[in-house]
Amino acid sequence: MPAKKRIKTQYPGVYYVESMAIGSNKPERIYYIMYRRDGKLVEEKAGRQYQDDMTPARASTLRGKKIEGAKQTNKEQRETIKAKKLAEEGRWTVDRLWEAYAAQREKTRAFESDLSRYKKYVKEPLGDKELKNLVPLDIDRLRIKLLKVKSPQTVKHILGIIKRLHHFAINKNLAPGLNFAIQMPRVDNQKTEDLSPEQLSSLLKAIEQSEHKIPGAMMKTALYTGMRRGEMFKLEWNDIDFERGFIFIREPKGGVSQKIPLNDAARQIFSTLPHSSKFVFPGRGGRQRTTVTREVNSIKSKAGLPEDFRPLHGLRHFYASLLASTGQVDMYTLQKLLTHKSAAMTQRYAHLRDETLKRASDLAGDIINQAINGKEKVVNIGKK
Q1: What's the Rg (C-alpha) of the chain?
Q2: CB 139 within 8 A of CB 162
Q3: How does pLDDT run across 134-179, given as a tens digit for each residue?
Q4: Contact 339, 249 (CB under 8 A)
Q5: How far apart (Å, rounded) are the C-alpha atoms in residues 384 and 368?
Q6: Residues 6+ apart with CB under 8 A from 257
Q7: 271 near 231, Cβ under 8 Å?
Q8: Which numeric CATH code is attached to 197-352?
């Protein structure tokens, strides 16, 4: 294709060529400028007549700025953009760290929760920043804002994501981490629900009368085995060894699959359930259940239980509290029954066992005192 004719303008170093406007057959001028930079002749496009609203006067003004060095040449601009892009690619922002971290995480329910929390609460305020450039005030603002609408435990989970990204960046030698320790909100993890004999009786009656048979069976299973809600959702018939008397727990909260004893009460519950799905407590269409909140809250309400009583988690706590208060179950055994990852998680029930031991000790003292008092009476009678 022959070169297009250059047409000079009244402005020195400004010319144009004629072409067709983009997207139409309308003629259009494309303006160019010529100037010297560091002794070299530079010739570059200034802009199109219609698309860029370019005129000879504007092209001349642009040429003057480039001669003075106030504006980069087109080549310099391209190199600047390229350098900036490369620098951006080299920046380990919180977003980029999360992507790398998420890629190597196992896609469990816990990961899905972290992913949701990251997108909702971390990405917008911190995603485009680097950990090394964060200051305590950044985290303080986030924590204070979240505590206005979320529980301390939830805020702790959210801030925990940032802590994990900090350790991930350092352990993988990807980027510098935080220069300070994150202040976590204080969380009261010692809450354990309790039920009086009357409340327990009312609950069992409400379960029997409820139309929600599967959710009711889940509540009784939590009461008799201490299983978590998520563990019951995933429970399959193949996980129950009726012959040996064990329940296989898939991916418990602690991470490692475990088994717990199948007691007679739980065996009786399972014997009343239909085998309509591979799941023991199936959801719609026989698929794995994902929620049971509405049904169990309905049963709780009919039983007249306190508003803050957690229908499934509360029954798990009641199961643990009941065993601990007997004084016949040691903390290690209770830890295994609850599939706690560490003994520290089971210690919230230790005071119940301590109270039982104290009562036993007091009983021993009473018996000894009675024996002493009885002996004194015998001696006194003998003297008379």
Answers
A1: 37
A2: yes
A3: 999 999 999 999 999 888 888 999 999 999 999 999 998 888 999 9
A4: yes
A5: 25
A6: 248, 249, 250, 251
A7: no
A8: 1.10.443.10
